[in-house]
Automatic annotation (TrEMBL):
Organism: Curtobacterium citreum
Keyword Iron among record annotations: no
Transmembrane region(s): 7-28, 175-194, 221-240, 246-270, 290-313, 548-572, 593-617, 637-661
Keywords associated with the record: Membrane, Transmembrane, Transmembrane helix
Source taxonomy: Bacteria, Bacillati, Actinomycetota, Actinomycetes, Micrococcales
UniProt-recorded name of the protein: ABC transport system permease protein
Protein's UniProt keywords contain Lipoprotein: no
């Protein structure tokens, strides 16, 4: 192992820091405007002032404190991609610049329209206000809103979260852990595992401190990667967003890069010091690695394999989310339907009366056929703890979606009876399933309706579920269909209110939804009218990002696992090569000669297999509600487990080949008289 391995360890941190900085700042940009120092949240009080007074008071605070105050409001038409930022315009403040030149979003997935705070008349003043200023500005905003009758609270935004460092590390711990572990091992093997370099310097009279300083000159690998990578990253950022928030991005990269360099420098320093403490004569001859280093090289493989298992499960889950539905097919199935965003905060979400009002609104919309029911529920199969997916639908759903029985006829809700339809080829016991539904999900229905449940078997088909997020599959081929002609007569207001808030009560189009909202007494409780699938599409977009991260994690962790196996084997051969040669030369079989390494390999593989089985056991749907049969991530648990076992097998097979190859090399070299 030569010193170039140490140089490689110094090249990885700046590259990884750029990736983590970008990921983190994208997440901060999507959540709000980049750089807010604090957030003040206003809840409706007993006697609140008008929107115009709120706007004027905030403008006065901004001018007095030299700060910028921002109220970000999602665009009702496209809340996941469009938003308005109501900003104060104090002279020479950030807000004044944004009002003049617009706000540059760091991420291209979000577009922000800047409006003056005076336009607060058109929006709900209840919510969060981002403050760009010092702590005095935060306190002034608190006092201003409190004086206007609002219940207020505030939160300081830590510097690391403000520039995206916290979000950059969130979700990427496997990638960071694997690469850091690899870099640390490279440093130890390039110093303690190859002490001759330090021994030559000691022979020339250099002290340990001067040798450490000379060794740390390898940080030029980081400087070289930075010098070469900076213009490349800057050009890419220019193409991506016109260098928006470039200074913040650079700061985040420096902070993350410094954090990633710390363990590399520490390992390099420790390895060099320990190498300098070896006897000079043996070090010059190329001393065998110390036993502790051989042990470290083998032990380091365990966390790498565990990280590999976790990364494979993360990748499988992200891919399953992305593949749960295609955009074109979902768009055709959804048509013009929309879902409502209920605004629970800061409303009295613990009040039963609140949810009854929301449920009554949903019930009226269903009765008037302005809305339809498409509620995906995990229900008991009637046998033990086993569960099955079910889709509760009404006449409105069946009018838009073509659902057919086993004989090919289309299912309708012309009959007033509740009907239950079992998937084709299902082994469910219909009698027990219907009894379980009647005892729980349909318990609010009239007794006569629960006793006259009809139905039959479905044709082989997939039905659209009108998903509200990525935790529910868009298309269901294995779901029980429960037709409830009049949901308002069967389900409680509380249940209908819950389903409305989760997007399971779907309006036929935007015009109908807006009319229903404007003529109701709960119109302030809805923050957005969202095209069906929009939230799921946003979640799928995030899952696509996580797929890229998880793929990079799997690839890097696989490489690190193989590399650590190679380093561990090489270190073991350098320390115990003579004993291995003696055993092989005396006729001992290769398996018995390498019994120690084979035992370690078996133990590590066993640990990884146990971790895989444990991850599969925890992720699979088990009827307890912890992992739903409707969740594509849970459905992919079996595939993830199989892929994890395959990855472990690949690592083990490569290391087995390395064992055989190094054993042959040791026998040949020792037989030729090499030390």
């Amino acid at each position: 192992m030569n010193i170039r391995s140490v140089t490689l360890a110094y090249v990885v941190p700046p590259l990884l820091a750029s990736v983590l900085g970008f990921i983190g700042l994208v997440q901060v940009s999507e959540a709000g405007l980049v750089g807010a120092s604090s957030v003040v949240t206003a809840a409706a009080g007993a006697d609140t002032a008008s929107n115009q007074r709120v706007a004027k008071s905030l403008e006065q605070v901004a001018e007095t404190e030299g700060a910028t105050i921002v109220r970000v409001v999602a665009d009702r038409a496209a809340p996941t991609t469009l938003r308005q930022a109501l900003v104060t315009g104090a002279p020479s403040s950030l807000g004044a610049g944004w009002l003049s030149d617009g706000y540059g979003d760091f991420t291209r997935s979000m577009s922000t329209t800047v409006l003056p705070m005076s336009d607060l008349d058109h929006f709900d003043p209840v919510g969060s206000y981002a403050v760009f200023g010092d702590d005095a500005a935060r306190r002034a905003v608190l006092d201003a809103l409190s004086g206007l009758g609002y219940d207020v609270s505030s939160e300081r935004v830590p510097f690391l979260r403000r520039i995206g460092v916290s979000d950059g590390f969130s979700g990427t711990s496997g990638l960071v852990g694997a690469l850091t572990l690899g870099c640390v091992t490279l440093c130890l093997m390039g110093t303690l595992g190859a002490p001759r370099r330090s021994a030559v310097r000691r022979l020339h009279g250099q002290s340990t401190a001067s040798i450490v300083v000379s060794e740390l000159a390898e940080v030029r690998g980081t400087l070289l990667a930075t010098v070469v990578g900076t213009p490349v990253v800057a050009f890419g950022l220019f193409l991506y967003n016109g260098l928006a928030s470039a200074a913040t991005f650079a700061t985040a990269v420096v902070v993350i890069g410094t954090a990633l360099l710390a363990p590399v420098i520490a390992a390099h320093t420790i390895g060099t010091v320990l190498a300098c403490r070896q006897p000079l004569a043996t070090a010059l001859r190329g001393a065998r690695p110390v036993g502790a280093l051989v042990l470290v090289a083998q032990v380091a493989r365990a966390p790498a394999l565990l990280l590999l298992v976790t990364a494979v499960f993360d990748l499988s889950g992200a891919v399953a989310t992305v593949r749960s539905g295609t955009a074109e097919r979902d768009l055709r199935a959804a048509g013009e339907t929309v879902q409502l965003w209920v605004t629970p905060d800061p409303r009295p979400i613990d009040s039963q009366q609140y949810w009854n009002r929301i449920g009554a609104f949903a019930g009226r919309a269903l009765e008037q056929r302005d809305a339809l029911l498409a509620a995906t529920v995990e229900v008991s199969s009637g046998q033990g703890k086993s569960t099955v997916p079910a889709l509760f639908v009404d006449a409105g759903y069946l009018g838009l979606q073509d659902v057919r029985t086993e004989d090919g006829s289309r299912i309708t809700a012309d009959d007033a009876d509740i009907s239950v339809w079992i998937p084709a080829d299902s082994r469910l016991d219909r009698r027990r399933l219907v009894a379980a539904l009647a005892d729980w999900q349909l318990r609010e229905a009239p007794a006569a309706a629960r006793e006259q449940i009809t139905g039959g078997r479905l044709a082989r088909q997939q039905v659209y579920s009108y998903p509200d997020d990525s935790s529910t599959r868009s298309w269901l081929a294995d779901a029980v269909i429960v037709v409830v002609p009049e949901p308002a007569e069967v389900f409680s207001a509380d249940q209908l209110g819950s389903w409305l808030s989760t997007g399971d009560v779907v309006f036929k189009n935007r015009t109908v939804a807006e009319r229903s909202i404007n003529t109701s007494d709960v119109r302030r409780e809805f923050s957005a009218v969202v095209a069906v699938g929009q939230v799921a599409a946003e979640q799928a977009r995030l899952a696509a990002t996580m797929t890229v991260i998880a793929t990079a994690t799997v690839v890097s962790t696989l490489i690190v696992s193989i590399m650590l196996g190679l380093l561990g084997t090489v270190a073991h051969r350098r320390r115990h090569g003579r004993a291995l040669f003696a055993k092989l030369a005396s006729g001992t079989s290769a398996v018995r000669a390498d019994a120690g390494l084979l035992f370690v390999e078996t133990a590590l593989v066993s640990i990884a297999v146990v971790a895989t089985v444990n991850s599969w056991w925890g992720a699979r749907p088990d009827g307890t509600g912890r992992s739903s049969v409707l969740d594509p991530v849970a459905q992919s648990a079996g595939t993830a487990g199989a892929l994890a076992l395959l990855a472990i097998a690949v690592v083990s097979a490569v290391n087995g080949a390395v064992l055989a190859a190094t054993a042959r090399n040791t026998l040949r070299d020792r037989g030729n008289g090499a030390r």
